[in-house]
Write a structure and sequence with these properties.
By secondary structure, the protein is mainly β. It has four domains: 2-38, no CATH class; 55-237, no CATH class; 241-410 and 417-434; 436-577, Immunoglobulin-like, CATH 2.60.40. 7% of the residues lie in helices and 34% in strands. A hairpin with a 3-residue loop joins strand 5 (111-116) and strand 6. It is rod-shaped.
Length: 608
């Protein structure tokens, strides 16, 4: 056998080194000679990989530094989830593990990977609803040397892919996933230097270790493997909320520093169209990460939670914090309505506790259809329950703080194992509050024999405290007197800005009309152009009532007062038209008596 093989090789050789050994020789002499002079050493081998079983992954809170002072948060030895804060930098402590050990590192193993590479992966894998705005995975930068990441952290704040760190700039559910298909390449079918090409010595697309000494093992090393290893589940929550746009305004006139007391239950339709007389606390609540990123996944159909909102305020009279009482000594009830258009379809008015309003701000307000995802519009209407028949002295209301927190978004961050995202906005806003009444210059215009009479309309406010007190509330006591004690012309009423029209009509348009029917222009609180006109051909005397219209009762009830009962007044004023032939009565200058028609103008004589 040997003789034939090596004789054939020698026949191609022209040298004479082995001529005597290979010509007519027997045994191994020819082989020995060829080996001595012509042989080239080669390797005969079967390369194989020794792989880790899986990865042990720990997430730690090091207060966004390389400090060795850390808080352990979670390990991937169960399917449970860790609660982390968005935009916050955590440390990852990773060991490639030995067989049957969830912690002991497999020395000699190394891995360098950033994100989703062809054969390797290190990602925070999105694991939430498809309705979320951002469904992208987040890259990790992992460096394992000699089986461990220990000692190779390089955490830098605001760094998107810190070395062996974790920062996720959105909210929602994710899985920390590691995968290495490169380490076992010498056992894989497509490895070009295998002794037996196209034969896999490991199981493609599998991380299983199999059973038995001679069983094939999976080619892949992954962080999710049997019941000992899992991808590390993390729930990402807001770190904080941005309240910078929250403020207090008078509605509907945002430039005003006062409001009129208005029972919100009587003007719910105006709340729906944004025109109700009230103080409004409004602006945006924006979910934020620690690094200031807006969390677009913080929406109702993704990761948003119900928030706790607290509004702190105080009421003041005579510079003292006090409950506000009406003229009869009854404490008036503050009330509010949270209404956000178009999320809310109805208005729900609630009574407020003194000095504090606590609101459950539902996740629905973080609208999935909003172009600004992660932001919620907040609008709260505030006023006081108002009776028609009990007036109230002016007072001030000061809004102190607007506080937001979300106990349902608790996470581990800033070395706090119960980090609740919360923020307080100092509003420090004071507004004046008045009880107002629309009225005519006179309650009764008597003995009008002309065809028309000017009946000026005005807006007045109540104040029966000292003149100094009233003047502190911009009531000009020297020039704002009316025919009613304790009621003052309010010179600042601005109907054009939405503070309320006086809409009126007569109780019998066949007898008389009033114009304008909508009084929406005032000079120093008064409109001098309102005129009541008697219809032609109507027998006199007769009296007409100038009454508030349905529109005024519905939309501007806060300008109505009725001293007799807690209902809208029947009339704002009355006018009595008499016949011209009864223009004069009594005794004339010549001593003659003028006829007195008892059905005409009143004589106003004292009779006995």
């Amino acid at each position: 056998c040997f003789d034939k093989i090596y004789r054939d090789y020698y026949s191609d050789d022209n040298s004479s080194f082995c001529s005597s050994s290979c010509v007519n020789s027997s045994g191994s002499s020819c082989y020995d000679c060829l080996k001595k002079y012509y042989a080239t050493p080669i390797c005969s081998r079967d390369n194989f990989a020794i792989r880790p079983e899986s990865y042990s992954i720990q997430v730690l809170d090091g207060n966004e530094t390389d400090s060795n002072t850390t808080t352990f948060i979670a390990r991937n030895n169960s399917a449970s989830s860790a609660n982390l804060a968005a935009g916050y930098l955590y440390k990852l402590d990773i060991n490639a593990t030995k067989f049957n050990s969830t912690t002991e590192k497999a020395e000699g193993y190394f891995l360098n990977v950033v994100g989703d590479e062809t054969k390797k992966k290190a990602i925070a894998k999105f694991n939430d609803s498809s309705t979320c705005d951002d469904t992208n995975n987040h890259e990790l930068n992992i460096h394992i040397l000699n089986g461990s990441t220990s000692g190779y952290e390089s955490l830098t704040q605001n760094q998107n892919t810190p070395l062996n760190g974790l920062i996720i700039n959105n909210s929602g559910k994710y899985k920390i996933h590691l995968e290495d298909k490169e380490w076992t390449k010498v056992d894989q079918q497509n490895y070009p230097y295998k002794p037996f090409p196209n034969i896999a010595d490991c199981i493609t697309a599998s991380s299983e270790l199999g059973s038995g000494l001679n069983a094939k093992r999976g080619c892949d090393i992954t962080s999710e493997y049997n019941s000992q290893y899992y991808d590390l589940n993390v729930n990402i929550h807001p770190y904080s909320f941005d309240l910078s746009s929250i403020g207090v305004e008078v509605n509907p006139n945002s430039s005003s520093d006062y409001m009129y007391i208005n029972d919100l239950n009587k003007t719910t339709s105006l709340i729906q169209n944004g025109k109700a007389m009230a103080l409004t606390v409004k602006g945006k609540i924006i979910a934020k990460g620690k690094n200031g990123a807006t969390l677009s996944n913080y929406t109702n159909q993704c990761s948003a939670k119900d928030l706790n909102v607290t509004l702190n305020y105080k009421t003041l009279q005579d510079n003292n914090i006090t409950d506000i009482k009406d003229e009869l000594g009854n404490i008036i009830t503050p009330e509010y309505a949270l209404y956000v258009n178009p999320i809310d379809s109805t208005v729900n008015v609630k009574s407020a506790t003194p000095n504090k309003i606590i609101v459950n701000f539902a996740s629905k307000y973080f609208d999935d259809n909003s172009p600004n995802k992660g932001e919620a519009d907040f609008t709260l209407y505030f006023n006081y329950k108002r009776n028609y028949n009990t007036a109230i002295n002016p007072f001030s209301i000061n809004f102190d703080n607007f506080d937001v927190n979300s106990t349902l978004d608790s996470s581990v961050a800033s070395l706090d194992t119960n980090h609740i995202p919360k923020v307080s906005k100092d509003l420090n806003t004071t507004k004046k509050v008045y009880y107002a009444k629309a009225r005519s210059k006179s309650d009764f215009y008597d003995d009008i024999y002309d065809d028309s009479i000017v009946t000026p309309m005005m807006v007045t406010v109540f104040c029966n405290k000292s003149l100094d007190y009233c003047e502190k509330y911009n009531i000009e006591t020297n020039t704002s007197l009316t025919s009613e004690y304790d009621w003052w012309v309010f010179k600042y009423h601005n109907a054009v800005a939405g503070e309320g029209n006086i809409t009126i009509e007569t109780d019998d348009i066949n007898k008389a009309t009033v114009a304008p029917g909508v009084v929406n222009s005032f000079t120093d609180g008064v409109n001098e152009n309102v005129k009541v006109t008697a219809a032609a051909g109507i027998n006199r005397p007769f009296t007409v009532c100038i009454k508030p219209t349905v529109d005024m009762i519905t939309n501007y009830s806060y300008l109505l007062f009725n001293k007799d009962k807690n209902t809208p007044p029947d009339c704002l004023d009355k006018t009595r038209f008499v016949d011209t032939k009864d223009a004069w009565s009594g005794k004339g200058a010549t001593g003659r008596s003028i006829n007195v028609n008892s059905s005409g103008r009143k004589s106003k004589k004292v009779e006995w």
